[in-house]
Amino acid sequence: MTQPTEVNYEKMPATLNMDETDINVRAYFSRMSDDRLKEYQPEWTDEQLKAWDGNFRSDGALMLVCCERDVEADDYRQIIEEHIKLRGLTTDG
Fold this sequence. Notes:
This protein is mostly helical. The chain has helices at 20-30, 34-39, 46-53, 73-86.
């Protein structure tokens, strides 16, 4: 019996030419549980989003190490929604 192949969400979508920040933010989401990701609501305000995640800096960017650029709420939303779809999840609500 073969082992299932683990999907590398850090490198998806494969068609995107990614920089270090793209890979790091996708790695950040890949470590979130399915249950946590299902809590995400696209209609949240930026403040609600930041409070839910709990890892935004006081200047409004997601706290990530080794990044070439900041990840603001708009970028966060785009990437997490893409990530949720790639994992085949739906959000509550």
